[in-house]
Structure to design on (297 residues):
């Protein structure tokens, strides 16, 4: 009966301490995660009033920083719990130094990319390159198409964004080579209006200026515009048409909505004035578009 008595004594002493340590670390980690979530929700509510795209730069930085601090605290809690459990289990921590050193060297060679990701994430957050809610286009190592979307999560290791199609894209921070922030401080909506070369460009400019003035007076669009849209003039010249450019400074992330609205207003204004835009070029012989190809079949 001595082994059983010894086991019961160990369970009532150190065994109970180990269970309480594990349980306490799990509860503490969940509490830290809950507090971090409440803080980020509070930051978002104060900064945006419900709009996930329009945030102050300071609020975006505080949101990302809170996420990183929360993640770091959780890792520290579990690390301390592991050492405490090993100590209460009677496993000498000093005896694990040599094996841990060898294991650390081996992991160091294999985890170089992870270390690079963490360092890159540290500089992304401290330099405020982008934050939660920013609309960005990110280029990664190896080229390919840029990942474009709204930032949903920034940690020391990865960046997660949601594409316009609703897909969640996860990018290791160490693989990012170029970031285009489309919602930093302010944004610009660019509208190129094609008109036939025979049309009076001065008249087109007057129409576009009136469209911009009407849009700035619109109670729905006015809060999204930083100043009245301006007409830049002729941007490009082709054989049959010229492109007249119109630009508008908007709140961060609102350039797409403003651009769509301005294009619709331009079409209606041209229709009221009896003007027509040039038709799209016809496909070359033998070059069927997807629609015409479907019709041919």
């Amino acid at each position: 009966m001595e082994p059983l008595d010894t086991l019961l004594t160990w369970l009532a002493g150190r065994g109970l301490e180990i269970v309480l340590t594990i349980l306490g670390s799990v509860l503490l980690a969940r509490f830290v995660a809950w507090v971090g979530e409440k803080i980020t929700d509070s930051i978002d509510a104060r900064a945006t009033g419900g709009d996930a795209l329009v945030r102050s730069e300071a609020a975006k930085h505080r949101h990302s920083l809170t996420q990183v601090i929360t993640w770091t605290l959780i890792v520290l809690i579990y690390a301390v719990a592991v050492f405490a459990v090993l100590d209460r289990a009677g496993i000498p921590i000093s005896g694990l130094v040599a094996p841990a050193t060898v294991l650390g060297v081996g992991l160091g060679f294999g985890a170089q990319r992870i270390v690079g990701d963490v360092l890159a994430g540290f500089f992304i957050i401290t330099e405020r390159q982008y934050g939660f809610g920013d609309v960005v286009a990110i280029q990664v190592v190896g080229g390919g198409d840029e990942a474009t979307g709204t930032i949903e999560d920034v940690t020391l290791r990865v960046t997660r964004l949601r594409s316009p199609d609703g897909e969640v894209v996860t990018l290791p921070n160490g693989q990012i080579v170029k970031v285009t922030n489309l919602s930093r401080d302010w944004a610009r909506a660019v509208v190129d209006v094609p008109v036939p070369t025979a049309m009076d460009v001065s008249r087109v400019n007057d129409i576009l200026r009136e469209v911009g003035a009407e849009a700035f007076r619109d109670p729905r669009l006015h809060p999204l515009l930083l100043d009245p849209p301006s007409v830049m003039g002729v941007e490009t010249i082709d054989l049959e048409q010229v492109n007249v450019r119109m630009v508008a400074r908007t709140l961060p992330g609102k350039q797409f909505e403003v651009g769509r609205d301005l294009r619709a207003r331009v079409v209606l204004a041209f229709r009221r004035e009896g003007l027509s835009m040039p038709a799209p070029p016809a496909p070359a012989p033998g070059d069927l578009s997807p629609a015409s190809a479907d019709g041919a079949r």
